[in-house]
Amino acid sequence: MTVVVRSSRLWISAFRRAVSKRRDGLEVVQQQQQRASLGYAAAVREEEEDEYQEYPWANAGLEEQGRGVQWVFLGCPGVGKGTYASRLAKLLQVPHIAMGDLVRQELSYATPIAKQLKSAMSQGQLLPDEVIFRLLSKRLEHGASCGESGFILDGFPRTVNQAKTLAELAEIDMVMNLKLRDDVLVTKCLGRRICAECGGNFNLAQIQAEGSANSPAIFMPPLLPPPKCLPKMTIRADDTEEVVRTRLRLFYEESKPVEDFYRKQGKLLDFEVAGGIPETWQRLLTVLNLEEKNASQSQLRDASRKKMTA
User: Fold this and answer.
1) Are the C-beta atoms of 243 and 258 separated by less than 8 Å?
2) Catalytic member of 236, 249, 256, 305
3) Residues 232, 247, 263, 293: which is the catalytic one?
4) Could you tell me the CA-to-CA distances from 161 to 59, 254, 261 in Å, in that order?
5) Using one digit for the tens of pLDDT, what is the confidence trace for 147-175?
6) What residue ranges carry the coiled-coil annotation (predicted)?
7) Residues 93, 293: contact at Cβ < 8 Å?
8) pTM to 2 decimals?
């Protein structure tokens, strides 16, 4: 079994070895399944069932791995990676790790890493991979000392070099690639709001997108804030249509090599988001064979509430 948590020195050494390696040139030819003439929704269900059978992690009990799952969640901005990754992390009792959160947390400290991050950000530079892996190492080492096992990485890795380095440091079991129509993504991003006081995330957009031969109809109700938060709603400065569409274009250019990297290993699972959180969550549980685990935990929560109110 791959050891997940190593010392920072070993992580950095592995990083340097990985980025210096050349690609071995081995490629696995992937046969693309053609959509049958069953209509989009039926074709999506059929593809999900076929993919579900291909993944050993989907059919085996999670406990048989001897540790928590080690998953990666990919997907374009606004697709809901954080929402579903955090829900699954809670269900599977593993940490949900978003690199953006680690960076923001480190910036609040007066550390050498924080100074390096601030310097790169002030000059508009990409954050160095070595620094990113040091942050990830630090987080996993802390988690291991607290008894954590496994993880769900949110939106990372973003490049093939990062994916190769991560492969040397931890055995990734599965990569979930969330997908959503561009027109819906833009509407979702433009509807995002944040409470300036409590930091809660909300969305004012009510999405009713018509279906076509190549895409399903999508209905997503708004996620409205409570009355106390309404006067304190703020909008992200980069949530404009022009910026959102630019981010999407850049994301597709950058993400394809990473998707191909994991697809060739048989670890990538494309998942089409075709509704709001309640509908998508249930479909996600079905694909991951986690319906019984979710139902069991729900029963435990209900029993606990009854005891508290008795």
Assistant:
1) no
2) 236
3) 247
4) 30, 12, 10
5) 999 999 998 999 999 999 999 888 999 99
6) none
7) no
8) 0.72
Query: Given 81, 134, 181, 267, which residue is catalytic?
Result: 81
User: What is the full DSSP assignment across 148-209?
Assistant: ---EEEES---SHHHHHHHHHHS---EEEEEE--HHHHHHHHHTEEEETTT--EEE---EEE
Query: Over the stretch 112-140, which tens digit does the pLDDT of each residue have?
Result: 888 888 888 888 777 889 989 999 988 98
Q: What percent of the chain has pLDDT over 70?
A: 75
**Is residue 15's pLDDT more than 60?**
no
The question of whether 6 is a catalytic residue gets the answer: no
81 flagged as catalytic: yes
Query: How far is 245 from 257, CA to CA, in rounded Å?
Result: 20
Is-contact 2 170, C-beta < 8 A? yes
Residue 263 φ/ψ, nearest 5 degrees: -65, -40
CA distance 9 to 138: 11
